[in-house]
Automatic annotation (TrEMBL):
PANTHER family: TRANSCRIPTIONAL REGULATORY PROTEIN. Residues 9-69 form the HTH tetR-type domain. PROSITE patterns: HTH_TETR_2 (PS50977). InterPro entries: Homeodomain-like_sf, HTH_TetR, Tet_transcr_reg_TetR-rel_C_sf. Keywords: DNA-binding, Transcription, Transcription regulation. This is TetR/AcrR family transcriptional regulator. SUPFAM superfamilies: Homeodomain-like, Tetracyclin repressor-like, C-terminal domain. Residues 32-51 bind DNA.
Length: 196
């Protein structure tokens, strides 16, 4: 790859990563092309060298934001090898995760938009939901019970994080995280039993 091609690829990657952060933090309607290009240190006119349209960029940014979340969830599950589900719950329902939406789970920010989105958007969102369900269900993921439990846990994780970001009262926000984490730690398999 020539020098100019490498620079073009690096610029495109910078814009795409910045857009992924923006859609995680603000959703899909907010980030404008001019704003993204300026933040990336590029001119607005150069945008079309990298992307066919704003919709093309946002679609790719959504897919990247969702995929990055999967990698983070896998790392969180590996933090506690004896109880991977507990590691995932503890990592997901932390104040740091709540307070950093630009680097947090895109399922939270993008759920409503995916529901109104086109087929490609829905499929990207669904891939992430399925990946998280598989991760939460673990090796027993094919059983009805494990699948139902994974759906309940994922719904509680996403819902608690969403509400903790949305309420005005900091005390209630913290309580949502800690109480849901505590309840999930007691729920289900021995893997997720709380420490004595």
């Amino acid at each position: 790859m020539g020098h100019s091609q490498a620079e073009k690829a690096a610029s495109r990657d910078r814009v795409l990563r910045m857009a992924a952060r923006k859609v995680r933090a603000e959703g899909v309607t907010r980030p404008g092309v001019a704003e993204l290009m300026k933040e990336a240190g590029l001119t607005h006119g150069g945008f079309y060298k990298h992307f066919a349209s704003r919709d093309d960029l946002i679609g790719q940014a959504v897919a990247l934001a969702l995929a990055e979340g999967s990698a983070k969830m896998q790392r969180a599950a590996r933090k506690n090898e004896q109880a991977p589900r507990r590691g995932l719950i503890e990592s997901y329902l932390r104040k740091q995760h709540r307070d950093a939406p630009a680097t947090g789970c895109a399922l939270v920010t993008l759920g409503a938009a995916a529901g109104r989105g086109d087929q490609r958007f829905k499929e990207a969102y669904e891939r992430q939901v399925r990946a998280y369900l598989d991760l939460i269900a673990g090796p027993d993921g094919t059983s009805e019970e494990a699948r139902a439990e994974a759906m309940l846990i994922l719904s509680a994780l996403v819902g608690a994080l969403l509400m903790s970001r949305a309420v005005a009262d900091p005390g209630l926000s913290d309580e949502l995280l800690t109480r849901v984490a505590g309840e999930l730690a007691r729920y289900g398999s021995p893997d997720s039993a709380p420490p004595a």
